[in-house]
Write a structure and sequence with these properties.
This protein has a single domain, classed as TIM Barrel. By secondary structure, it is α/β, with parallel strands linked by helices. The protein is globular, with a radius of gyration of 18 Å. The chain contains 13 helices and 10 strands. Strand 2 and strand 3 form a beta hairpin. The N and C termini lie far apart (48 Å). An 8-stranded parallel sheet has the order 4-1-10-9-8-7-6-5. It has a two-stranded antiparallel ribbon with strand order 2-3.
Length: 306
C-alpha cells in the first residue's frame, strides 16, 4: 500500500507574534526549520496557531506565508474550521485560492449541533469547496463528538479524506477502519497516542510536540514505516516527558514557551491566553533537556524567556 499524502509527523504550527502582530519573518524561518528537520506536513491556523484570536485577513496571511516556504515540499493543510458553516466555507475557499493542499475542519464548537447538524455542516463545506477535507474531532475543546457512524456517512462524500482524532479513544480507529475503509486517513490529534494510533491503523499525527522536536517526531514516524518498532518505541519514550509538559497548562502556552527557549519565537500569546507560570516554565525546560538530548538550549534565549 502506498503512503498517503497526508501522513507521518504533521506539525500544528505555532504563530509567532511580536507586540501583538504576526511576526512574518520568524514564522517563515520556523516553517523552513521544520522542513529542514524532516517534518512530513504542516498545519497553519490550527488551535496551536491561535487562530481563534486571529482575523480572516491574518489567517490568510499566515497560510500564504506558510505556502511560500512549504508548497511543493510538504503538504499544507490549512485550518479553516468554524462553528459558523458559512464562515468555514468562506475560509476554505480562500485557502483553496491561496494554493493549500487540504483544509482542516474542527467540529463546530459552542453551538453543540446534533449528529445530523454535524453531517450537514461538513457536507455544506464539502459541496462548496474543492480541496480534500480532514475532519477534526476534539470533544475536550468543542463539547461535540463526531460519532464513527456519522463519520461513515461523511466518507461517502468524495473529498472527505481523513480525520484528526483527538478523543484519546484507541478503540475508535478500529471501528473507523471497519466502517470507513482501509484508505480513509486516520491521524492522531494527541502526541501521547501518536504511536498507539499507528498500531491501531492510523498513518500519522498532527502534532504539537513537533513544534520543538520535529526531527524526533518525524524519525518516530519514519521508523514505524520501516518496521523498526524498537526505534519508534524508543523515540516515543524519549518524547513522553516533553509531551506531558507541553500540556500542563492550556496549549499553546507551554509549546510557545518551549519554542522561545530555542530562539524560534517570542514567548507571546494573545489574550485570553497568557504565558505559562514559573512552575510550568521549569517543567518545560527540564523536559526539553531530558528529551532533546542533542539540542543545546541557547543561553540568550533562556535568559530572555525567564
Amino acid at each position: 500500500m502506498s503512503t498517503p499524502l497526508f501522513s507521518g509527523a504533521i506539525t500544528a504550527l505555532i504563530t509567532p507574534f511580536n507586540n501583538g502582530k504576526i511576526d512574518a519573518k520568524a514564522f517563515q524561518e520556523f516553517v523552513k526549520w521544520q522542513l529542514d528537520e524532516g517534518i512530513h506536513g504542516v498545519v497553519p491556523c490550527g488551535t496551536t496557531g491561535e487562530t481563534a484570536t486571529m482575523t480572516d485577513k491574518e489567517d490568510e496571511e499566515v497560510i500564504r506565508l506558510c505556502l511560500e516556504v512549504a508548497k511543493g515540499k510538504v503538504p499544507v493543510i490549512a485550518g479553516c474550521g468554524s462553528n459558523d458553516t458559512a464562515h468555514a466555507i468562506k475560509a476554505s475557499q480562500a485557502a483553496e485560492k491561496l494554493g493549500a493542499d487540504a483544509t482542516l475542519h474542527v467540529t463546530p464548537y459552542y453551538n453543540k449541533p446534533t449528529q445530523e447538524g454535524l453531517y450537514q455542516h461538513f457536507k455544506a463545506v464539502h459541496d462548496n469547496t474543492g480541496l480534500p477535507i480532514i475532519l477534526y474531532n476534539v470533544p475536550g475543546r468543542t463539547s461535540t463528538n463526531l460519532t464513527v457512524e456519522t463519520l461513515a456517512r461523511l466518507v461517502e462524500l468524495p473529498r472527505i479524506a481523513g480525520i484528526k482524532d483527538a478523543t484519546g479513544d484507541l478503540q475508535r480507529p478500529l471501528k473507523t477502519r471497519k466502517l470507513c475503509g482501509d484508505t480513509f486517513i486516520q491521524l492522531s490529534g494527541n502526541d501521547d497516542t501518536a504511536l498507539a494510533m499507528l498500531a491501531q491503523g492510523g498513518v500519522g499525527c498532527i502534532s504539537v510536540v513537533s513544534n520543538v522536536a520535529p526531527k524526533l517526531a518525524s524519525e518516530m514516524q519514519n521508523a514505524w514505516r520501516k518496521g523498526d518498532i524498537a526505534t519508534a518505541q524508543k523515540i516515543n519514550f524519549q518524547l513522553a516527558p516533553l509531551v506531558e509538559a507541553l500540556f500542563v497548562e492550556t496549549s499553546p502556552g507551554p509549546v510557545k514557551y518551549a519554542a522561545s527557549l530555542l530562539g524560534k519565537c517570542r514567548n507571546e500569546l494573545r489574550l485570553p491566553l497568557v504565558p505559562v507560570g514559573k512552575a510550568t516554565e521549569k517543567l518545560v525546560k527540564d523536559a526539553m533537556v531530558q528529551a532533546l538530548l542533542d539540542v543545546a538550549l541557547p543561553g540568550d534565549a533562556l535568559a530572555k524567556a525567564g
